[in-house]
Write a structure and sequence with these properties.
Shape of chain C: flat
Mean pLDDT of chain B: 97
Helix content of chain C: 25-40%
Radius of gyration of chain B: 21 Å
Structural class of chain B: alpha/beta
CATH class of the domain at 1-43 in chain C: Mainly Alpha
Number of helices of chain B: 15
Mean pLDDT of chain C: 95
Shape of chain B: globular
Strand content of chain B: 5-15%
Low-confidence stretches of chain C: none
Helix content of chain B: 25-40%
CATH superfamily of chain B: Amidase signature (AS) domain
CATH architecture of the domain at 1-43 in chain C: Orthogonal Bundle
CATH class of chain B: Alpha Beta
Chains: A alpha+beta (484), B alpha/beta (486), C alpha+beta (93)
Number of domains of chain B: 1
Low-confidence stretches of chain B: none
Structural class of chain C: alpha+beta
Oligomer: heterotrimer
CATH topology of the domain at 1-43 in chain C: Histone, subunit A
C-alpha cells in the first residue's frame, strides 16, 4: 500500500454521511402493522403498506416524538413547521410508486456530533418510510438473476435520515462519527443501531482534493455499506480509485456506486438505473406538522443521559477516560454499571472487575451482562465483602467467575468455601515462622539488602493460606520475624 | 313498483308504516336493474345477494317494531371506485378489472351500519377522469332522458341509476364536478360536501386534495340524510375534518327571507345556452320571490380555474396512479423482457387514453425544471382563487350559477377534443379547488326536455345554509318530482 | 412548447409505453392544454403561499399501536404472480 501513503501525502478525503436510522416504534410510520425484523415474508403488511387502491397514510406520532428527541440530542433546531412530500420512482420494493419523505421542510435542521478531535456538523434529519426487500432468484445479486421476489415487511418502517456536513477527512473519522451517532441513538432509545440487520445504514459521499485546495472535488455516493469495517474499507478503496483517476489526468464522475463487500470494491450503478427525476411534491394526504415549544420541552424533559454526560459522570466517580469510554460504548454494560453505582460500591473497583474478569467471561461465553447470572445485587455484595476486608482481591476475582457460572450468593460462597480472610495472629504466625526457617538463603539475602525478596515471602505465605491471609497482618508479622 | 320512483323519505315512511317490506323494495330495485341496465349501462357489477340479506335484516327489525335508521332498506349504489369487501372495485379500468377488495371503505362501513342495501357498483369514467362517462373501459352509460346523450361524468352510473329509478340513492365522488355535472345532466340532486367532511378512506384516489365523496338523490332531503349517514371524522383519513356535522335534516325547513344570494357574473355570461340561462334566471327570480336578496358577484380569477385544476389534479393523479404497476394486484402485461418492460406495457395496456393523457400532463408538470412554472404556480393561483371566494362570502350566503353551461350533449360529440371536454367543468371545479360545499339541483328543462341543473355553492363548512337554501328553492320550483320516461 | 421528445421523456418517467400515434397525439393535445394552462401567467403570484390543501389544520397523528386487519392470503389474493410467500416480478435487469 505504498501508493496509498503517497496519495495520502498528496490528496485529502472529504466525507459526508447519510445515515438511515430505523426508529424503534411498535408500528409503521403510516401503516398500522408492526415492523419487526425477521418475520415471515409479507406478514408485517396491511392494506396501507401494500398501497392498495383507496388507502390513506396516517402519521405515527411516536415517529415525530423520536425525530424531535434525536434532533435535541444532536443539537439541531426543530423548526416550528414541517411537512411531508412524495418522492416518486418505480421499483418493486416501493409499493405506491412513491416514498413519503420530507423534502424541503425536514423535522431537524443543523446540529453537530462531537467526535474525539472535532465536531461533525449535521445538515438536517428527516422522517421517511423504508422500502421493502427484494430477493433475487438464480444469482447472488441483482445482476444475472432470472426474476425477483418481493417481501414488503420492511416497507413503511419509520426511518430518520440524518445527513452530515462533509466534515470528515478520513475513514477513521467517518467510523468514529457513525459509532458516536449510533451510541447516541441507542442511548435515547430511538434506534437499536444494528448495522448487520440494517436497522442502521450509512451511505457515504466521498470526494478527494489536493491537500491545501479549498474547493471540493466531485463526489461519489457509496451505498450498501453494512458494517463499520466495510465503511472503512469502502472509503479506503474509493480514495485510491479517485486518486488514481486524478493521477492519470481523468475526472471523477458524480455517481452512485455500490460497495461489494466480498470483492472489496465499489462499482458504478450508472446505466443500470435511469437518471432520476423524483418529481417531489407536497404529500396531499397528510397535513403539515406544527411543533410547538411546549411539545419540544415535553420531549426534552424525557431526554435520558447522553453518552457524553455519562462519560463525564464516570470520570468524576474516579474512572479513567479510557475505562469510562469502554463502559459507555456498551449500552447494556453502562446500564448495569449505573445500577451497580446506586449500591454505593467503589466505582473504580467495580469498573476494574467489569472490564477485566467479567468482560472476559462474557466474551468467552458470548452472552451479555444483563443475561448473565451475575445480578447487580450479588455483585454489589461481593464488592462489599472485598471492601470490608472479608475477602481478598484475588479471592474476589475468582469468586466473580464462580458467580457468573453458578449465580450463587457471594456471602454463601465465601462461607461455604471458607474463603474469608484470616486475621487471627495465632493462625498466621506459625506459617510465617515456618517460611523464614525453611528459606535461610533468601533470609540472608534479604538481610543483605535485597528488599525485593519481601514479595517472595508474602507469596509463599499466601500460597500456604490459599490467599486468605490478611495482607496487613501478614506484612507486619513477616517484618517482625525477618528482623529478628 | 311505483314506490321505487319516490324519494327515500317517502320510501322510509312506507317501510315503517309496513306498506312495503324492505325485501320487496330491494327486489323491485333488482328487477328494474335487470330490466333496464342492459341499455343504460349504469352498473359495472351488482351485489344483489348482500343487498337482499341487508333488506331481510331491516324487515326483521321492523317486524320487532325496532327503530330503524332513516336509510335502512333504501336501495343504494356505490360508485365503482369505492371499496367494499369481497366485491370488485374496477374504477372502470382494465388495470383493475379483476380486483376484488379485501377491505371496506369508511363510507361502506357506515352504510352497512345504517342497514343500507347496496345493490352494486356504478359505472364511471376510468379512475373518475372525465365529464361524460365515455371513458369507461367497459361500456358507456346513457342518459335516462335521452339514450343518445351522455349522462355526464365522472359519476355517470351513480347519477343515471338514481335518475332511472334503478336505485333510490347513490354515492359519487367529485374532483372537479363529477357529482354535480351528472346530477345536472340526469335531472337529479348531487351534493359535494366541504373537502374533508366525508372520509376518503377506501375511495380510489384521483386527486387527493380535490376528491370528495357525496350523495345523489331525488330531493334535497334525500341527499341530506345520505350525507349525514356518511359524514364525520375518520381516524383513517388524515384530511378528514374533526368537526361536528350538525343535524341538518331536522333543520332543513327554514325561512330564507333575507338570504343573500350571489349570482356569479362570469358563469352567466357568453357560452351559456339560452335555455339554461333562462332556467337559472327563473330560479333566481324564485329566490327573490322567497325574500332573498340577489346580488351579482364577480370572480375574476375563475377563468384560470381550469388551468389550475388541470395542473393540480393531473399532478396528484399521476402520482396516485403510480401504484398500478402490475406487482401486487391488478392487470399485468404478459411476455415481458424485464421489469421496465413489464411496467411500461402493463400501464400502456391497462390504462385508457384519457387516463394516460392526464398521467402524462401531471408527470410533465412535476418534472424537473417545470415544477415552479406549473405546479407551484397553480397552487399559488389556487390560493388567490380561494381568497376571491372568501371575499365573495363576506357579502353573500350562497353563490349560484348553472352547473354546466349546456345540458347533456350527444354521445361521441366531444370525445376527440380533450380541451373542449375540460371546459365543460368551468362552473364546478373552483369549489373543489377551494374546498367549498356545492350542489346541483334540477331547476328546469330545455326545449328538448333535457334537465338543467342549478349549482349552489356555500362557504367551507356551511352545509347547513347550502342545504336549507336549496330546500326552500326546490319546494317552490317543484321540478324534483320529474322522472325520465324510461 | 412541448415536443415529441418531451413526450417520450415523460412517458418513460411515467412508465407508459406509447405508440408512435399516441406520441403524436399527446404532443398535440398536451400542447393545447398547456397553452390554456399558461394563461395562469397573466396573474402575478409573487410571494403567494402555495395552497396544498383546501383546508387548514395541522398535526394529524395516530397512536403507535399495531393493528392487523387482513391476513397475508387476503392481501396477496389479487397478485398477478406470486412464488410462495412472495410477490414475483420479472428480472430487473
Amino acid at each position: 500500500m505504498s501508493e496509498t501513503s503517497t496519495y495520502k501525502d498528496k490528496y485529502e478525503m472529504v466525507i459526508g454521511l447519510e445515515v438511515h436510522a430505523q426508529l424503534k416504534t411498535n408500528s409503521k410510520i403510516f401503516g398500522r402493522e408492526g415492523c419487526e425484523f425477521g418475520k415471515d415474508p409479507n406478514t408485517e403488511t396491511g392494506t396501507i403498506t401494500l398501497g392498495l387502491p383507496g388507502v390513506l397514510p396516517v402519521l405515527n406520532k411516536e415517529c415525530v416524538n423520536m425525530g424531535i428527541l434525536t434532533g435535541l440530542a444532536l443539537h439541531s433546531t426543530i423548526p416550528s413547521r414541517c411537512k411531508f412530500d412524495r418522492k416518486q420512482y418505480f421499483y418493486p420494493d416501493l409499493p405506491k410508486g412513491y416514498q413519503i419523505s420530507q423534502y424541503d421542510e425536514p423535522i431537524c435542521l443543523g446540529g453537530w456530533v462531537q467526535i474525539s478531535n472535532k465536531k461533525i456538523g449535521i445538515t438536517r434529519a428527516h422522517l421517511e418510510e423504508d422500502a421493502g426487500k427484494l430477493v433475487h432468484a438464480g444469482a447472488a445479486g441483482l445482476y444475472g438473476s432470472s426474476y425477483s421476489l418481493v417481501d414488503l415487511n420492511r416497507a413503511g418502517t419509520p426511518l430518520l435520515e440524518i445527513v452530515s456536513e462533509p466534515d470528515m477527512r478520513s475513514p477513521e473519522e467517518a467510523r468514529e462519527y457513525v459509532e458516536t451517532l449510533r451510541n447516541i441513538l441507542r442511548y435515547i432509545g430511538v434506534c437499536d443501531g444494528n448495522l448487520e440487520e440494517g436497522s442502521m445504514r450509512a451511505d457515504a459521499n466521498i470526494s478527494i482534493r489536493p491537500i491545501g485546495q479549498k474547493e471540493f472535488g466531485t463526489r461519489a455516493e457509496i451505498k450498501n455499506v453494512n458494517s463499520f469495517r466495510s465503511l472503512v474499507r469502502a472509503l479506503e478503496y474509493e480514495f485510491i480509485r479517485q486518486a488514481e483517476i486524478l493521477e492519470e489526468g481523468g475526472e471523477v464522475i458524480q455517481e452512485t456506486r455500490l460497495w461489494d463487500d466480498n470483492a472489496g470494491i465499489t462499482s458504478s450503478m450508472r446505466g443500470k438505473e435511469d437518471a432520476h427525476d423524483y418529481r417531489y411534491f407536497p404529500e396531499p394526504d397528510l397535513m403539515p406538522l406544527e411543533i410547538s415549544k411546549e411539545w419540544i420541552e415535553e420531549i426534552r424533559s424525557k431526554m435520558p443521559e447522553l453518552p457524553d454526560e455519562k462519560m463525564e459522570r464516570y470520570q468524576k466517580a474516579g474512572l479513567s477516560e479510557y475505562d469510562a469510554s469502554v463502559i459507555v460504548n456498551q449500552i447494556e454494560m453502562a446500564k448495569y454499571f449505573d445500577e451497580l453505582l446506586k449500591t454505593n460500591v467503589d466505582a473504580k473497583t467495580a469498573s476494574n472487575f467489569l472490564m477485566g474478569e467479567v468482560a472476559a467471561f462474557l466474551k468467552e461465553e458470548k452472552i451479555s451482562i444483563e443475561n448473565s447470572k451475575l445480578t447487580v445485587e450479588n455483585f454489589a455484595k461481593l464488592l462489599g465483602l472485598l471492601k470490608k476486608g472479608t475477602i481478598s482481591n484475588n479471592i474476589a476475582k475468582s469468586l466473580v467467575i464462580d458467580i457468573l457460572k453458578t449465580g450463587k450468593d457471594a456471602q454463601e460462597l465465601v462461607e461455604e468455601k471458607g474463603l474469608s480472610v484470616i486475621s487471627d495472629e495465632s493462625s498466621i504466625l506459625p506459617i510465617v515462622q515456618k517460611i523464614v526457617n525453611d528459606n535461610p538463603e533468601q533470609v540472608a539475602a534479604y538481610k543483605g539488602g535485597k528488599d525485593k525478596l519481601f514479595g517472595f515471602f508474602v507469596g509463599q505465605a499466601m500460597k500456604e493460606t490459599k490467599g486468605r491471609a490478611n495482607p496487613q497482618l501478614l506484612n507486619k508479622l513477616l517484618k517482625q520475624e525477618l528482623e529478628k | 313498483m311505483e314506490l321505487l320512483k319516490k324519494t327515500a323519505t317517502e320510501q322510509h315512511k312506507a317501510l315503517i308504516n309496513k306498506e312495503v317490506s324492505a325485501l320487496e323494495l330491494t327486489k323491485a330495485s333488482i328487477e328494474r336493474i335487470e330490466k333496464l341496465d342492459e341499455k343504460l349501462g349504469a352498473f359495472n357489477s351488482t351485489t344483489f345477494d348482500e343487498a337482499i340479506e341487508t333488506a331481510k335484516r331491516v324487515d326483521e327489525k321492523i317486524a320487532k317494531n325496532e327503530q330503524i335508521p332513516f336509510l335502512a332498506g333504501i336501495p343504494t349504489a356505490l360508485k365503482d371506485n369505492m371499496n367494499m369487501t369481497g366485491s370488485k372495485t374496477t374504477c372502470s379500468s382494465k388495470i383493475l378489472e379483476n380486483f376484488v377488495s379485501p377491505y371496506d371503505a369508511t363510507i361502506t362501513t357506515k352504510l352497512k351500519e345504517n342497514l343500507v342495501p347496496i345493490l352494486g357498483k356504478a359505472n364511471l369514467d376510468e379512475f373518475a377522469m372525465g365529464s361524460s362517462n365515455e371513458n369507461s373501459a367497459f361500456k358507456i352509460v346513457r342518459n335516462p332522458y335521452n339514450l343518445n346523450k351522455v349522462p355526464g361524468g365522472s359519476s355517470g352510473g351513480s347519477a343515471a341509476s338514481v335518475s332511472a329509478s334503478e336505485v333510490t340513492l347513490s354515492l359519487g365522488s367529485d374532483t372537479g364536478g363529477s357529482i354535480r355535472l351528472p346530477a345536472s345532466f340526469c335531472g337529479i340532486t348531487g351534493f359535494k360536501p366541504t373537502y374533508g367532511r366525508v372520509s376518503r378512506y377506501g375511495l380510489v384516489a384521483f386527486a387527493s386534495s380535490l376528491d370528495q365523496i357525496g350523495p345523489f338523490g331525488r330531493s334535497i332531503e334525500d341527499v341530506t340524510h345520505l350525507y349525514e349517514a356518511i359524514a364525520g371524522y375518520d381516524v383513517k383519513d388524515s384530511t378528514s375534518l374533526n368537526l361536528e356535522v350538525g343535524n341538518i335534516s331536522a333543520n332543513l325547513k327554514k325561512d330564507i327571507k333575507g338570504l343573500k344570494v350571489g349570482v356569479i357574473k362570469e358563469l352567466m355570461a357568453e357560452g351559456v345556452a339560452d335555455d339554461v340561462k333562462e332556467s337559472i334566471e327563473n330560479a333566481i327570480k324564485t329566490y327573490e320571490k322567497l325574500g332573498a336578496e340577489i346580488k351579482e358577484i364577480s370572480l375574476p380569477l375563475l377563468k384560470h380555474s381550469i388551468g389550475v385544476y388541470y395542473i393540480v389534479a393531473t399532478a396528484e393523479a399521476s402520482s396516485n396512479l403510480a401504484r398500478f404497476d402490475g406487482v401486487r394486484y391488478g392487470y399485468r402485461a404478459q411476455n415481458c423482457e424485464n421489469l421496465l418492460d413489464m411496467y411500461c406495457k402493463t400501464r400502456a395496456e391497462g390504462f385508457g387514453p384519457e387516463v394516460k393523457r392526464r398521467i402524462m400532463l401531471g408527470t410533465y408538470a412535476l418534472s424537473s425544471g417545470y415544477y415552479d412554472a406549473y405546479y407551484k404556480k397553480a397552487q399559488q393561483l389556487r390560493r388567490l382563487i380561494a381568497n376571491d371566494f372568501n371575499k365573495a362570502f363576506e357579502s353573500v350566503d350562497i353563490l349560484v350559477s348553472p352547473t354546466c353551461p349546456t345540458t347533456a350533449f350527444d354521445l361521441n360529440s366531444k370525445a376527440n377534443n380533450p380541451l373542449e371536454m375540460y371546459l365543460t367543468d368551468i362552473a364546478t371545479i373552483s369549489s373543489n379547488l377551494v374546498g367549498a360545499p356545492a350542489l346541483s339541483m334540477p331547476c328546469g328543462f330545455d326545449k328538448d326536455n333535457m334537465p338543467i341543473g342549478l349549482q349552489i355553492i356555500a362557504k367551507n363548512l356551511d352545509e347547513m345554509t347550502l342545504l336549507q337554501s336549496a330546500y326552500a328553492l326546490e319546494q317552490e320550483l317543484g321540478v324534483y318530482n320529474q322522472r325520465p320516461n324510461i | 412548447m412541448i415536443t415529441k421528445k418531451d413526450v417520450e421523456h415523460v412517458a418513460k418517467l411515467a412508465r407508459l409505453e406509447l405508440t408512435e400515434d399516441e406520441k403524436e397525439m399527446f404532443t398535440h393535445q398536451l400542447g393545447d392544454v398547456l397553452a390554456h394552462v399558461e394563461k395562469m401567467n397573466e396573474v402575478d403570484t409573487t410571494g403567494i403561499e402555495p395552497m396544498n390543501h383546501p383546508i387548514d389544520f395541522v398535526n394529524v397523528m395516530r397512536e403507535d399501536k399495531k393493528i392487523y386487519e387482513n391476513t397475508r392470503e387476503e392481501l396477496m389474493s389479487n397478485a398477478p404472480d406470486v412464488e410462495g410467500e412472495y410477490f414475483k416480478v420479472p428480472k430487473i435487469n
